[in-house]
Structure formats: structure tokens, C-alpha cells
Specification:
heterodimer, A: mainly alpha, Aldehyde Ferredoxin Oxidoreductase Protein, subunit A, domain 2, Aldehyde Ferredoxin Oxidoreductase Protein, subunit A, domain 3, two-stranded antiparallel sheet, 20 helices, 6% strand, B: 2 helices, 14% helix
Chain lengths: 411, 86
């Protein structure tokens, strides 16, 4: 199924998911079920300049711990702290992207999740991999204190919560567990359920219905399950829905592009389809990290998305978690320390310019692949309904022209 | 003091204050507060004893606002610490 992801183990042997883009489907198409690595007798990682590496790593770690987002906000509330932020800003896509605020936002907020976890003996701070010093993950238990899920992210909670109008965090947590178990992307599947609800397959707000469809249809690959497992675009086509929030057939994540215009440019231009992490303008449009660009105006959005996508492509290729971007945007020593670590690891001499050029090269290469695969400018557009349907409370539409969006690629 | 000043009513405004994440600790989640007309956001922040350096986002009626903005009756003021996500 195109919603299939790649699953890995976290330090507690629970499932973490590499979602988006259907990589699990790619693996499946090549008949790869799993990859296991046995490192017994292997030489280990060789660091070219160990002392230089250690010094750079210390500076880097300090920046991560010093910045309030990576050092305090994320380890305390996880990514789900964003529900209330986007709700307040009027950019929380609700009821299949029809409004920008969710009346029951308190039920699913990061603050509520934090208090629920603490009351039930879970963990509000938790690392998804050995050595992580940000620790934005958590362990969410049910009311009897039994494990339900980890890596309970804003995207999943927004998607099944606000976008599908489910106001029960326990239902959403169980659905998160089932999606991990089946091995499907929680963002694509959540956006898909929003479309499915609009199609009348189940009512908006039906959390138990979501769990039932996950377990009884998608997990069992029934004909309906195969349609649902094909993602938001597939359901939209099969049921004749026009309000289908996808770009390049990938579901649009937890920020409405009409009221957060910078992320709309990222959605339209990202080479993998609608993605928020590839150029996370939310940092600057909403969170005042790396400066401020008004989310409700067109000014500066293309440049913002471009700079972030270039930097992110480079950071992604190092294998670093993208959340290092928060300290990197505000603390001047952070990114140079990362470059020093890379140089010390391999005995090379990259500069900041080299890293920027690497990011540009990666984006252009990916775009070239897409072009040769048949993608055109027409695929760098948002669905039409964003142009014509204003989103409350700001009552704004997506008003970038095709030419304005295409400007993105002028680098 | 002139007569007109002596009879001038001291006007107040009523606003809804929303606090989030760590700012709720030791304070409140949502409150209705009365202030003198002409009060700006910075004055509210000072009164709440919120350290300026901890402030992430200020939203006034769902739009970003600067601390020097003057408040009006019926405003909804939301104050967030520096947070992030994905």
C-alpha cells in the first residue's frame, strides 16, 4: 500500500516510524521485508580527528541544551505543544481543511497530553534513539497505566484530532499504535481519514470508527482497506471528493497554507510532495525562531521557504534530527560546530558555503529526477479549493500565482 | 488640576488572557482581566512576572503582535513561551 512506511526499533524496542513518501511500499515492491544488521566483529566508526570532534560535539550539544525549544519546550511537551499555537493562529486545519480552529483543541493539546501522561505514570521526556539529547518523545499509557504508544506527535494528533474532529486523546493514541503496528504513515492516514469522513465512509469525530477501519479493513487488506491504504488522494478519487488536501498525491500536514503562507510554498515546491519538514517556515512564520515573517502576507515567503529547504536538504544528508534547526537558526556557534564535527569525523574541510552548495545540489538533483519522471510546473501547485475557499477565522485564501511559486527554483 | 480632568472617568478595558505550556505553571490557563485604558502588552507581561527572554509568540486576536501594542476592550491576548515542533 502506498501509505506503507519503514519501521525501526527505539531503545525500548517499541516501534518508531519513518513515514511519508511510501518508502515501505518501495521496499515491498522489491520484496524486501526487513533489513537486519549484525555488527559483531565489525570495525566500528573511525573518527579521523577525535579531539577536534569531541570539542565540536561539546559546543554543539551545549547549543541544543541552551536553546529553549530544543532544551526545554520539546523535552517537556513534545511536538504536540503546537496544537494550541496553531489553533490560536487560526492555522490548525480542522474538519478536512474547512476551518482553521478546532473547538475541542484543549482535549488534544500538548499541555493536556503532558498532564495525562504524568498522571498515568508514563514518560513526558523520552529519547527515540540512543544518545539523543533533545528527547522530544514520550511514553503514553492508558488509564490503567499500560503502554499505548510512543512518538506521539503533533502531526498524528492534529490529523486524527482536529482534521477528523476526534476529541478523545485515548482513541487517537490507540490509532497511533495500530498505525505503527500495521506499518502505515500516520500523517497520510490521518489526512486520508479526513477525506474518508467527507466522503461519508464514517462520520467526522468517530475515533472508534477510525480504529475499526484500521484493524478490520486496512490491516486485513480488504478491498476497502486497500483504497484507504492508498492514501488521501486514492480515497478522494474513489469517492469523488474534491476537497482533497494533497500535493503530488501526498497528504498535506498540520498547517493551513492559507493562513500560514510560507509553508504553502514549501508544500507546493518540495520534491517529495506536500511536506512540512523539508522547509519548516513555521519556525519563522509562527514561532519567532530565525526572525519573523508575517504568515498572513505573501511577502518574503518564497525566499524563506527556499533558504530553509536548502539548509534542510544539507542537514538531512548528515543524518541529524531536523530539530537541531531551532538552535541552528538562533545560536551562531551551532551550525559551525556541526560542520566541525563532520570535518573531524572524515578529515575534510567543508565550509559553511560548501554546506549551502550541498543543499542546493541535492534539491536540484531531486528536482531533475522528478522532471525526468514526468513532473511539471503543474505539480508545484496546491489543490484548487485553497484558492477559492477562505479559511476562518482570518478568512484568507491561497493567493500565490503559478509564476510566483515557480520563482522558488531561481537559485 | 482643571475641572474637566477632575470629572474625567478613569476608563478601563476588559481582555481575555490565555497562557500556554510552562507559562501556565504558577499562573493560570485563561483569565479575564481588567486594565486601565492605554495598557500595552508589555505591561501585562510585566505584571504576570513573565521574563521577557522566555517569550516565544504573542498573539492578539489570533495575529502576531509586538509588546508595544496597546490593548483594546474585548481583546484576546495569548502568550506562548519559545516552543517548537514538526
Amino acid at each position: 500500500m502506498t501509505a506503507a512506511n519503514i519501521s525501526v526499533k527505539d531503545p525500548d524496542s517499541k516501534i518508531r516510524s519513518h513515514g511519508r513518501g511510501g518508502h515501505g511500499a518501495v521496499m515491498g515492491s522489491k520484496k524486501i521485508k526487513f533489513i537486519s544488521i549484525d555488527d559483531q566483529g565489525a570495525p566500528g566508526i573511525k573518527i579521523a580527528e577525535p579531539e577536534k570532534f569531541k570539542a565540536a560535539a561539546r559546543t554543539f550539544a551545549k547549543a541544543l541544551l541552551d536553546h529553549p525549544v530544543s532544551g526545554e519546550g520539546l523535552p517537556t511537551y513534545g511536538t504536540n505543544v503546537l496544537v494550541n499555537v496553531l489553533n490560536e493562529a487560526g492555522g490548525l486545519p480542522t474538519r478536512n481543511f474547512t476551518v482553521g480552529q478546532f473547538a475541542a483543541h484543549d482535549n488534544i493539546s500538548g499541555e493536556t497530553m503532558h498532564d495525562t501522561i504524568a498522571a498515568r505514570g508514563g514518560k513526558t521526556k523520552h529519547g527515540c534513539h540512543a544518545g539523543c539529547i533533545i528527547q522530544c518523545s514520550q511514553v503514553y499509557n492508558d488509564k490503567d497505566g499500560k503502554y499505548v504508544t510512543s512518538g506521539f506527535e503533533y502531526e498524528t494528533i492534529w490529523g486524527l484530532g482536529a482534521d477528523c474532529c476526534v476529541d478523545n486523546l485515548d482513541d487517537i493514541a490507540l490509532a497511533d499504535n495500530v498505525m505503527d503496528d500495521i506499518g502505515i504513515d500516520s500523517i497520510e492516514t490521518a489526512v486520508m481519514f479526513g477525506v474518508a469522513m467527507e466522503a461519508g465512509i464514517l462520520p467526522f469525530g468517530d475515533g472508534k470508527g477510525i480504529i475499526r477501519l484500521l484493524k478490520e479493513e486496512i490491516a486485513k487488506a480488504t478491498p476497502l482497506g486497500r483504497i484507504l491504504g492508498g492514501g488521501a488522494g486514492a480515497v478522494g478519487k474513489a469517492y469523488g471528493v474534491t476537497r482533497v488536501p494533497v500535493v503530488k498525491n501526498q497528504g498535506i500536514p498540520a498547517y493551513d497554507p492559507r493562513s500560514v503562507k510560507g509553508i504553502g510554498i514549501t508544500y507546493a515546491t518540495s520534491t517529495m510532495g506536500a511536506d512540512h519538514t523539508s522547509g519548516y517556515t513555521i519556525a519563522t512564520n509562527i514561532l519567532n525562531v530565525g526572525g519573523y515573517v508575517d504568515p498572513l502576507k505573501k511577502d518574503g515567503q518564497v525566499e524563506l521557504s527556499r533558504n530553509l529547504q536548502i539548509a534542510t536538504a544539507a542537514v538531512d544528508s548528515t543524518g541529524m534530527c531536523i530539530f537541531i534547526a531551532f538552535p541552528a537558526l538562533d545560536i551562531p556557534e551551532c551550525l559551525p560546530a556541526l560542520i566541525d564535527m563532520i570535518n573531524a569525523r572524515f578529515g575534510i574541510n567543508l565550509t559553511g558555503d560548501d554546506v549551502t552548495n550541498l543543499g542546493k545540489y541535492i534539491l536540484k538533483t531531486e528536482r531533475q529526477f522528478n522532471i525526468e519522471a514526468g513532473f511539471t510546473k503543474a505539480d508545484d501547485r496546491l489543490p484548487e479549493f485553497f484558492n477559492t475557499e477562505p479559511v476562518a477565522p482570518h478568512n484568507v485564501v491561497w493567493d500565490f500565482s503559478g509564476e510566483e511559486i515557480d520563482e522558488f527554483w531561481n537559485f | 488640576m482643571q475641572t474637566t480632568e477632575a470629572f474625567q472617568l478613569h476608563e478601563t478595558i476588559q481582555i481575555t488572557l490565555k497562557l500556554f505550556a510552562t507559562f501556565r505553571i504558577g499562573r493560570f490557563t485563561v483569565a479575564s482581566r481588567e486594565y486601565a485604558k492605554g495598557t500595552n502588552i508589555a505591561a501585562v507581561i510585566r505584571e504576570l512576572l513573565i521574563p521577557e527572554g522566555q517569550i516565544g509568540t504573542i498573539m492578539l486576536n489570533s495575529r502576531h503582535a509586538d509588546p508595544d501594542r496597546e490593548l483594546n476592550d474585548g481583546d484576546i491576548l495569548a502568550i506562548f513561551p519559545l516552543v517548537g515542533g514538526g
